[in-house]
Specification:
Helix content is 74%, strand content 2%. It has 312 residues and is mainly alpha-helical.
Amino acid sequence: MNTKTILFAIIAGLAAAVMSAAPQSGSGFGLALSFFAAVPIIVVCLGWGTLSAIIASAIAALATVLAGDFQSGIVLALVTVLPAAWIGHMTSLSRIDDDGQETWFPLGDILFRATLYFAILTVALGIMVGFTTEKLTEAIAQLMREFLAQSQQQGQIDPDALLNNARYYAYVLPFVIPVSMMFLMLTNWLIATRLARNFNLTPRPRDYIAGTLDLPIMALPAFAVAVIASLLGGSIGLMAQPFVGALGFALSLVGLAVLHLISTGRSGRGALLAIVYTLILFLGIPLVIFTALGIAELLMRIRARRTPPPNP
C-alpha cells in the first residue's frame, strides 16, 4: 500500500467521522449529512481497495472515540463504516468465467448478506438492552422521558400515554430498525457507486438493477421460518422480528425491480412509479404487496418472460 492510498484512506475515515458527528451542530443539514457517512468508505473501497476501506473505517471509529464518545464510535463502526467496507469489498469482487468474460459479484448476493448482517446486528443490540417486551418497553419509555425532560415537556405528557407509546414502539422497532439501516446503506451504496464510476475509480459497470436484483432461493425458507418464529411471542418472537423486517424489505426490493422492468417502455410509467413510491413513503403498506411480488419472482421468474432493453 503506497502513501497516496493511505492518504485517501485517512481522508475518507475522517470524512465519515465528521459526517456522522454533524447532527451535533443542531442543524437539519447536519442531521441529513450524517445519513451519508458510509459514502466515503464505499468510494475509497471501490477506488483503492478493501484494505484502504478497513483503515478508513478504523480511523472513523477511532476519531469518534477520541472525540469523547466511545459509544458513538462503536455504533458508527457496527452500523455504518464496517458494513460499508464489507459491502464495498463485495461490490469489487469479480472473476473470469469460462468464456473469458469478467463476472461481477451478484447484487442479490450482496443484498442477502447485508440483510442478514443488519438483522443479526439488530438482535445483538436488542440483547444488550434485554430482549423481552417488558425490558424493551421500559428502555424506550426511559429514552422518551429523557427526551421530554431535555425539551422541558415532561409535565405535558400523561404517563399512561407515554407508556402506551413505548409499547407501540417496542412492537414496531424490531421490524423497522433493520429496514432503516438497510435503506440508508442502499442509498449510500447507490451514491458511492455512481461517484466511483463518474471518476473512473471502479471498473465495475453500472448494474441494471431492474433486471438483475435478485435473492438466493434460500431467502424464501429463511423468511418463512422468521415469520413463524415471530408469531411465537416472547424473546424468540422478538428476535425473529428483525429477520422478518429485513428479509421482507429485501424481497420488496426485488418486487420493485420487477415493477421497474415490466413497466419499461409503457406509457404512464413515470406517473405509475411516482404514485407507488409516494404511497410507500407515506403509508408503507404497499411494501407488503411488493414483498409478495418479490416472493412470486423467486418462485416463477416473472422477469425472465420479458426481454430487457438493450441499453439499460
